[in-house]
Design goal:
This protein has 288 residues and is of the alpha/beta class. It has a single domain (65-285), classed as Rossmann fold, CATH 3.40.50.150. It has ten helices and eleven strands. The strands form two sheets. The chain has a seven-stranded mixed beta sheet with strand order 6-5-4-7-8-11-10, with helices on both faces. Helix 4 links the parallel strand 4 (92-97) and strand 5. Helix 3 (74-85) packs across helix 4 (103-110) and helix 7 (193-203) crosses helix 8 (208-214). The mean pLDDT is 89.
Length: 288
Amino acid sequence: MSGARCPLCESSAYKVIYDLRLVTSANAIPGRIARCSDCSLEFKIVAGSASTVRDAYGDTYSEGEGADEYLTGDATRAYFRKVIGDIGIKKGRLLDIGTGQGVFVEEAKTAGYEARGIDLCAALVAKAQARGVDVQHKAAEDLDTSEGALFDVVTMMDLIEHVPDPLAVLATVRKLLKPKGELVVYTPNHRSAVVLMARALARTGADFAVREIFGSNHLTFFDDRTLHALLSKAGFSIRKMKLFPYDPTRPGQPVSPVSLAAVTVIEQLGRPFNRMFRMLAYAENAKP
């Protein structure tokens, strides 16, 4: 099949597995979900103009139910502190890409880093700046590399799945990182038990879970194998990768009691097989 190309291996051979061009969420990016025939990466063939992706991060992106609590709540801060605690480089300059309201930047500063962030959503940036956080309104694709390697650490928390060309973004990150600098990537695992169950339901005609997982504003759908391949191809050496369950009780996420019970049970069933929904990779800038 011709047309789109895989964001990982650039193959033009793929199979469309879900048609999600009709969306109900205001910030969802419509398209068809394809699986690469060569490397198995799943990605979205966007329906619409090139501006469709950036349009998804307008002011309404920051106004969802519970958005402030989800982005800035105590549970979020506690998790970010754990992430920061596992970074191998314990001081220096840190850039958080896709920082939202800048909470990761605040926690990194508390931990002793000279930290700043960028985000594509102007409304979220305004909220961060109102609190005095060093956050700029900028897309990952627009980072300036002319000044060379500036950062000891770059973090991308729930960001890599949102960009159209993850390899290009990682190439930019490598130019911004100092030699042996550290990259932290946090993203969903699409080989998890929850996703496997959603796929099984879709085969019976019940596609509500697939639409929730694949029909949002995500563009690339990694698993533990394809994320490893992406980082390696981009010139990073993974120091540590952690998989852990999705937390359906995180404040700001309205979840029905039935969904809460189902997700919790499925995630626990996947735990012995390391098929959990969240991935966290710590990688070193390996190539000169």
